Amino acid sequence: MSMLKGLSFFGLCLAFVVIALGAWTRLVDAGLGCPDWPGCYGFVVFPTSEADVLLAEQRYPQFPYEINKAIPEVVHRYFAAFLGLIAISLVVSAFKYKLPLRLKKFTSFLLFFICCQGLFGYLTVSLKLLPLIVTGHLFGGFITLSLFFYLYLSSTKKIISYQIGHLKPLAAIALIALIVQIFLGVWTSTNYASLACLDFPTCHGSFLPEMDFSNGFNLFQEVGPNYLFGLLDNEARVAIHYSHRVSALLVSCIFAVLISRLWFSNAAPLASTLGVVLVTQISLGIMNVVYVLPLYIAIAHNLVAAALLLTTLMVNFIVWKK
Question: Which range is the signal sequence, renumbered to this chain (predicted)?
């Protein structure tokens, strides 16, 4: 079990890095930094010499080579591939050391899911950033992180226990609400709607701006030659952005109730951790708007969302633990 615990913890840390790299790739508009997959302009890494760059542009004349965009894409791919190697190691360890059947099944599923993530990475490029595929790929990163975390918790013998079984429904509701909120955040990023509203708390000076929900949440929209920078009009993007804001308010209310119930159930450490992560995430979201999406704040917003997800999963793990 110690091998499983160590590998799953390493995978958990690396999954955080992969999420950060994925956010970096999106934020610098490098989703098509390499127009092919798994290589980059036909190279194992990315072209650097003058001759290689010339050859790359001859191969893909419709995608002018930009090394500043190729680097994030390639780095993200290789770190994600290494995550797959960890998953393989987990499967081998589970069967080699004859661990319980449920852990064998779980590690196998984790490996399968990461392979699916690789497929989605390929489709992201081959389908020219099709929004539904990009959203699935980004959201899958959070699922991968959660799977590693659950495996780590399952292989940890001593976990602090609190008498909070009566909070099962509330903890589950909080987790579901957070998952919906993360999906909306991913959809916002996918459709380049993060800057659809440049003021706060209003949007274009109104608490109820003009919005187009039918196009904003059309999961099967056209991508044109590619979906780089998006194709939606402003009202559709405002609908996406505003939905993410309103959902954040609802999620905050649910979490406020959960945090208070945890506090008065003698689970103050859990309540405090959840509260600090929640306030940090809300602050980063506001800063993204006020300071016009600074790169490192936007990446931090993704990572703290992941931390909030793990903290909520921890609460649910403790609450539902038999």
Answer: none
Q: How many CB atoms lie within 10 A of CB 224?
A: 10
Residue 21, burial from CB neighbour count under 10 angstroms (0-12, 13-18, 19+)? buried
So which residues are the catalytic ones?
A: 73
pLDDT tens-digit profile of 190-243?
999 999 999 999 999 999 999 999 999 999 888 888 999 999 999 999 999 999
What residues are paired with 203 via a beta bridge?
Answer: 206
Contact 37, 121 (CB under 8 A): yes
DSSP string of 52-81, one letter each residue: HHHHHHHH-TTS---HHHHHHHHHHHHHHH
> Smallest Cα–Cα separation from 185: which of 235, 243, 234?
243
CB 270 within 8 A of CB 162: yes
